[in-house]
Design brief:
Among the domains are: 56-248, no CATH class; 280-390, no CATH class. It contains 23 helices and two strands. The protein has helices at residues 2-25, 47-71, 76-92, 99-111, 119-135, 138-143, 145-153, 162-168, 171-184, 190-193, 198-202, 207-219, 226-230, 234-242, 261-265, 280-295, 297-316, 320-333, 341-348, 353-390, 410-414, 416-423, 427-433; strands spanning 271-272, 399-400.
């Protein structure tokens, strides 16, 4: 038995040795040909860290403006912050994210459940409004890069006559309504696409937009901040909040001598002159005019809603789903020849055209409702503007309208009473010499 075991063991050893020799004859596997070790990279800092820093810088700038304007009553430091905002929020951050554009993100976040509002975008939307509730439009004074660049180019402003200023001041409400509608339906971020100054900060952009921004800057040399006053949609929200502000610009720190210099120095028409008490007959006429405007308001809003509903289909073409459905229908009916990249991509999905048609119809219905509300909104704004023009509040001294005042501090440099308190010189001497602007 032992001999058999030994023989079997010898055979196994011999077989294993032969197998090992065969393995040695095989070439070793190749692991290195054509392969390169990846280079070690260091990850960049998290983007949300930079966003948090931008928010903190924004808060600091607005806080400094509030301090310099409301406590120090100084224009000089505000100029320094204006230059800083142009350089930092403008050229360094390329004008983004700005509070004007954040309106669209907020509208989309409210309308679309699948869109999450980024922290930085929500912060730059809310914080200037919070500051406006307590300290007025300090964001407009120096923190906004769109307003800051206009402040720098302003040379010698001319007053815009009331017959032109009143209708133009309604435009921001229309821009706000259209922008919110387009953003909430996912059609277009209107403010970002046609921002007149971001192209300058990025040193690139569509020629038409750059030309529009250049025209505004040229106009801004003689008209105080034309974009802020007659186009900016975020300015509408700031006006509402600043009208309720707890602390606001006071033109004269002591008794007003009614020299009219502050009103001449304000390039935005935000300082109203004294208004005497009206006699009873004037009050009755004013109340009658306001009553007539309010009585026709429901009819005007209904007509506005009807007009908005009519333009709904045309405005709906800004949505890609509607444009795709229209193009597919035209190609299917032979109205147009060839295909587009969008229609080709849709057909590659293997879905019938009815799917695209259904999506387009759904978006059109959204726009019919949205444009009807937009038309009613425009009618409401026009009616309330008429009421505001008719109503006049009695004032004993020159006062800065908190809703219109952008807290630039120019009125302080022109007020002889303010300069007399700061320099200790008599008011009469300052009036003879002329206050500096």
């Amino acid at each position: 038995m032992s001999r058999k075991v030994l023989a079997a063991g010898a055979l196994m050893l011999a077989g294993g040795s032969a197998h090992g020799q065969e393995q040695k004859k095989q070439p070793p596997p190749e692991f290195t040909s054509g392969y390169q070790l990846p280079s070690t990279t260091t990850p960049n800092p998290r983007p949300d860290l930079f966003s948090t820093i931008d928010v903190l810088v924004l808060v600091v700038v607005m806080g400094l403006v509030a301090y310099y304007v409301l406590a120090r009553r100084s224009r000089r430091e505000v100029r320094v912050l204006v230059v800083f905002s142009v350089l930092y929020f403008g050229f360094y951050k390329a004008g983004c994210v700005c509070s004007v554009g954040s309106i669209q993100n907020v509208a989309l976040a409210v309308a679309a459940s699948d869109y999450a509002l980024p922290f930085a975008v929500g912060a730059v939307f809310v914080l200037p409004l919070v500051f406006a509730l307590f300290a007025g439009r300090v964001f407009c004074a120096a923190a906004c890069p769109l307003g800051a660049i206009q402040d720098l180019v302003l040379q010698r402003a001319r007053r815009v006559p009331g017959w032109l200023d009143h209708p133009l001041s309604v435009l921001p409400y229309l821009v706000l309504g259209v922008g919110v509608l387009l953003a909430s339906t996912g059609s277009l971020f209107l403010f970002c696409k046609y921002d007149p100054f971001v192209g300058f900060y990025r040193l690139s952009g569509p020629a038409g937009v750059l030309a529009f921004g250049g025209a505004l800057l040229v106009l801004g040399t003689v008209v105080g901040r034309p974009f802020c006053r007659y186009l900016c949609p975020y300015g509408v929200l700031l006006r509402w909040c600043a009208a309720l502000s707890r602390w606001r610009v006071r033109v004269t720190p002591a008794e007003c001598i009614q020299c009219h210099l502050c009103a001449d120095a304000c390039p935005f028409g935000a300082i109203h002159p004294p208004q005497p008490e009206r006699v009873e007959i004037d009050r009755r006429r004013e109340r009658a005019a306001v009553s007539r405007l309010l009585s026709v308001l429901p009819v005007a809003m209904a007509l506005g809603a009807w007009a908005g509903w009519l333009v709904g289909p045309a405005l709906a073409r800004t949505h890609p789903a509607v444009r795709l459905a229209d193009r597919l229908w035209q190609e299917e009916r032979g109205v147009v020849r060839g295909t587009t990249d969008e229609t080709t991509a849709f057909r590659n999905l293997g879905q019938p055209n009815a799917v695209a048609y259904g999506a387009g119809v759904a978006v059109r219905r959204q726009f019919e409702v949205g444009t009807a509300l937009l038309g009613a909104w425009c009618a409401l704004v026009l009616a309330l503007k008429g009421v505001a023009v008719r109503m006049r509040r009695a004032r004993k001294d020159y006062e800065a309208d908190p809703a219109s005042c952008v807290s630039c501090g120019r009125c302080y440099a022109s007020c002889p009473v303010d300069l007399a308190q700061k320099t200790g010189q008599p008011v009469e001497l300052i009036l003879q010499r002329g206050p500096s602007t």
